[in-house]
Design brief:
single chain, 269 residues, mainly beta, 6-stranded mixed sheet, 6-stranded antiparallel sheet, 36% strand
Length: 269
């Protein structure tokens, strides 16, 4: 995307984050379920993708695991409308002898069936073109990356009027050095390890603020804004990975390379 703004001061950088957060959220939806009282709870984040005439939802596999227990998951498709997550699902398999929490791939794709297909103009949501999924962007360091998602702690149900407020979160970030990936049991070819310390996020005037708990950010897309290792910056909004895990003690958000989602979409097409 040409003509991307350059942030020269800290507050200008925040303005850039706000602007791009609004733009990139057009392709991102909160994945929700209702509790026993009928209150909506944030459960994860999903990316809408279109390939040909078909639409897909890309997220972390563990976000959709409740569907195996016949729980109902959905995402908003209108101001007061819900789109039940139904359709053919393909997900990565949990390694033998390990739990989903130990799954270092953790990706699922749903081919959306039935009515209520994107776009959803009422809430300004549409699918991202399949060609905007860019795999294997190496090295991981030297890039300005962007994460957009819906933390569960920012989902609020107003009991009196029964309205649901789904507040997104966006953050510009960068990868750790490629040679540090093995220290965390990761591989730069397969993962994207983003530096993320909830206690070192800053607001206007460079004031430190508390970032929201990333729970619910699983499935959030990782966007490539700038590539400082290449002569040319991206000319379109490109997704290079999907967030699967927050490692609080290690101050990391861990993502899986988007190549896995590309393979699953191809199998479903």
């Amino acid at each position: 995307m040409s003509g991307r703004p350059v942030a020269r001061t800290f507050d200008q950088r925040l303005a850039v984050i706000s602007k791009w957060g609004e733009i990139l959220l057009r392709n991102v939806v909160p994945i929700c379920e209702k509790d026993n009282r009928g209150h909506t709870q944030g459960h994860g984040t999903g990316l809408l993708v279109q390939r040909g005439e078909a639409n897909f939802l890309v997220t972390a596999a563990h976000v959709l695991d409740p569907l195996r227990d016949q729980r109902r998951l959905f995402f908003p498709c209108a101001q007061s409308g819900e789109r039940k997550i139904v359709g053919r699902i393909l997900s990565t398999e949990t390694p033998v002898g390990k739990s989903r929490k130990e799954d270092l791939v953790d990706i699922a794709v749903v081919k959306l069936d039935g009515e209520s297909q994107p776009p959803y103009p009422e809430i300004q949501k549409e699918s991202l073109e399949f060609s905007c999924l860019r795999p294997s962007v190496l090295p991981r360091s030297g890039k300005s990356l962007f994460v957009t998602g819906f933390p569960a702690t920012r989902t609020k149900t107003h009991i009196l009027n029964k309205n649901v407020e789904l507040r997104p979160y966006a953050n510009m970030c960068s990868s750790i050095a490629d040679d540090k990936y093995p220290d965390y049991g990761l591989k730069p070819e397969a993962h994207i390890a983003l530096s993320f310390d909830v206690k070192k996020v800053y607001g206007k005037g460079a004031r430190p603020i508390q970032a929201p708990d990333p729970a619910g950010m699983s499935g959030a897309p990782i966007w490539l804004l700038f590539d400082h290792t290449a002569e040319n910056h991206p000319t379109k909004n490109e997704v290079i990975g999907v967030v699967i895990e927050h490692r609080r003690a290690q101050k990391l958000l861990v993502g899986t390379d988007i190549s896995v989602a590309i393979e699953l979409i191809a199998k479903l097409s």
